[in-house]
Amino acid sequence: MATEPSPEQRPAPQQGNPPIQPTIEPANLEPIYTNFARVTGSPEELILDFGLNTEPMGNPTHPVKVDQRLVMNYYTAKRLFLTLGASLKRHETAFGELQIDIMKRVVQTPAGGTTSR
């Protein structure tokens, strides 16, 4: 006959946070790269279009092909906004401010050309 463990031998019950649920990614999940985003919306939803701008400097001669679209409600959009803001703040704290004006990142080379940082 098995005996009950004494209170000192029993593991303490976990208090506070519930157990973490692992994120399961589908096998066919394909990451995309984007350097173009367009935001539009309606009173109920926010629409985010993503694409690849192959001519990020100057006047593009080809239209940007939008190949991914996210549609979400404004509650989800606000949570995404706060999460992205916190992530960007951590990145800039560690590595310095991100300059989003590409013309301010262009460096003149001695030969008269330009490169981007």
Structure description:
The protein is an alpha+beta fold and 117 residues long. The protein has helices at residues 74-95, 102-105; strands at 36-41, 45-52, 65-73, 106-108, 114-116. The strands form two sheets. Strands 1-2-3 form a three-stranded antiparallel beta sheet. The chain has a two-stranded antiparallel sheet with strand order 4-5. It is extended and about 75 Å long. The mean pLDDT is 84.
Strand-helix topology:
Blueprint: E1 36-41, E2 45-52, E3 65-73, H1 74-95, H2 102-105, E4 106-108, E5 114-116
Antiparallel strand pairs: 1-2, 2-3, 4-5
Helix/strand-derived category reads alpha+beta
Bin the strand percentage: 15-25%
**Proportion of helical residues:** 10-25%
Shape field:
extended
Low-confidence runs of at least 5 consecutive residues? none
Across the major sheet, the strand order is 1-2-3
Average the pLDDT over all residues and give the rounded result.
Answer: 84
Query: C-alpha Rg, in Å?
Result: 25 Å
Helix run count:
2
Note the run of SSEs as H and E: EEEHHEE
The end-to-end span amounts to 73 Å
Describe the sheet with the most strands.
Answer: 3 strands, antiparallel
Short description, anyone?
By secondary structure, the protein is α+β, with helices and mostly antiparallel strands. It has two helices and five strands.
Keywords:
117 residues; alpha+beta; two-stranded antiparallel sheet
